[in-house]
Amino acid sequence: MEIKDIEPKEMEPKEMELNEIIRPENLVYKRTPLMTDATLSYCPGCGHGTIHRLIMEVVEEMGIQEETIGIAPVGCSVLAYDFMDVDCSQAAHGRAPALATGIKRLWPDKFVFTYQGDGDLAAIGTGETIHACNRGENITIFFVNNGIYGMTGGQMAPTTLEGMKSSTTPYGRNIQAMGPPYKITEMVAQLAGTYYVTRQAVHKPGPVRKAKKAIRKALEVQKEKKGLSFIEFVSNCNSGWKMTPNDSNIWMEEHMFPFYPLGDIKVDGELVQA
Amino acid sequence: MKELALMKGNEAIAEAAIRAGVDGYFGYPITPQSEVMEYLTLQKPEERTGMVVLQAESEVASINMLYGAAGTGKKVMTSSSSPGISLMQEGISYIAGAELPCLIVNVVRGGPGLGTIQPSQADYFQSTKGGGHGDYHLIVLAPASVQEMADFVDLAFELAFKYRNPALILSDGLIGQMMEKVELPPQKPRVTEFDQSWVITGKKGRERNIITSLNLDPDKQYEHNLKLKAKYDSMSQDVMFEKIDCDDAEFLLVAYGSSARICQKVVEMARDRGKKVGLLRPQTLFPFPTEEIARMARKVKGMMAVELSSGQMVEDVKLAVNGKVPVHHYGMVGGKIHSPDDVLKAMEEKYMGGY
């Protein structure tokens, strides 16, 4: 392709036109004030940044920033506390629901959430997850499921699909040897303590809008002290899956969504789908 | 007026916790300390003071509930026994790394492994040298009576908040299970003001706080480790010990907790036989009374560490003595308890004959 020199004149926007466009009524997107200035540590194309932003937008809109305490996990989002402008504690691997329990029991009027990946929540932290859900701790669990251990370099997760390649299943996940992936979100929905359980995604504008509504609902449930709210975000890991961001989103739609279908699983304490 | 009660050591810890204004207890049953949570739940502390008591699904969960809650600046505690304390070590390391105050009670039983439910002092290394991964220490208090089980709860919190460091009460199945007269401490109110420079209670009126033990930048971790080291070194100002018949002693017994109780009798028996024996009883095991033992090494002809283990604290006694006089060890293992006669005989026959 021929590269042409562009005359500087052609690049300069016409001042009049810009001033006509930049008006409050035309603003459809702004920086989320509750996200800090720290540079996100996530790979370009990853869903974590979007999910962080949505949570912080809802915290801002509900006016609960000064009452909110977040728990960061071990995993890619280990530094979530660097990006979300709320009081935070970093947890040991898998133990975020236990930390959240300890805080919420002593501060029942605060908003307490955990932010965890699939290895953290569904492997090493299974016990803490199940029991916090069963006790109906009045907290919110944000669970980001990308089917892989991202931070440690793409190893098999409990949610890795059958046949899916990872650095510890280089020939694909063999379910005879390694067991099948499991749906912990459906499991926790069976427990009496969970009040709102849903599965969302953030790879397109439509799902992003739905996910934000789900986050709002989850924190409203906590506000009304109705029990535990649990949101799974099926997300991509383009680095770990060794795909371009766009390919990873397409692969997620074609392979992850059939096994991890999006939508509400439990609403107002009642199961809405089998 | 004095408020006296006849209680088990485990019950005294629980009652003292309510009276110390503790905000939260998170625990998991294990012999020989289950009476702590049983007593607490029976007492309805949520009505007495508003204290929260929660039975967790495991010791792993209970220590992490403690980790979360300790970050909010409230007074929180857990209790367990040896295998359960082993399970907690990861969480304890995080709490130490994040510099949070809290109280952990270990009513020690014999090990390794599932071991025995009988008393032991074999968790000395684990308690005083860190226990989990990384460079850290706990403040370690060693009660030798039911009275000290009660008294050390408030003291432990005082030290834990002073240094922003987890404190451990290192008891054992003997002190935990035996009943003695105890003078109960007065009821303290629960704390309502929190140090906003570090607690996570929501960033109202201040910058946000972060509780973490993670420093990806080695320069930051280096600074953090040096800061922790300086903190642990400074704890020596709070060393506590008791000296019994040490003024004219020619031979010194060093023992803590239940072994110290036994050694009190040994000192009496030896003195009846005209032997000038004294007892130094560390009440804090970290900080350890290193200086005092070094001082005593200039006065006595020999020492003997007496422990319900195959030889743990004796290493710290030897470090303190630094070769100035012979340091011997008398230990009992397997959940068995040495009698004063056993200790006296060993001391007289093996170690005192030569000088």
Give a verbal description of the structure.
The complex is a heterodimer of chains A (274) and B (355). With 274 residues, chain A is of the alpha/beta class. Chain A has a single domain, classed as Thiamin diphosphate (ThDP)-binding fold, Pyr/PP domains (Rossmann fold), CATH 3.40.50. Chain A contains 12 helices and 10 strands. In chain A, strand 1, helix 4 and strand 2 form a beta-alpha-beta unit. In chain A, helix 3 crosses helix 10 and helix 6 crosses helix 7. The longest helix of chain A is centred in the last third of the chain and has 19 residues. The N and C termini of chain A lie far apart (55 Å). The mean pLDDT of chain A is 94. In chain B, helix 1 packs across helix 7 and helix 10 crosses helix 13. The radius of gyration of chain B is 21 Å and the shape is globular. Chain B is built from 13 helices and 15 strands. The model of chain B has no long low-confidence stretch (mean pLDDT 97). In chain B, strands 3-2-4-5-7-6-13 form a 7-stranded mixed sheet, with helices on both faces. In chain B, strands 10-12-11-14-15 form a 5-stranded mixed sheet, sandwiched between helices. Chain B has a two-stranded antiparallel sheet with strand order 1-8. Chain B is an alpha/beta fold. Chain B folds into 2 domains: 234 residues, 3-Layer(aba) Sandwich (Rossmann fold); 113 residues, Rossmann fold (3-Layer(aba) Sandwich), CATH 3.40.50.920. Chain B starts with a strand and ends with a helix. Chains A and B meet through strand 1, strand 2, helix 5 and helix 7 of A and helix 4, helix 5 and strand 9 of B. Strand 2 of chain A pairs parallel with strand 9 of chain B, so a sheet runs across the interface.
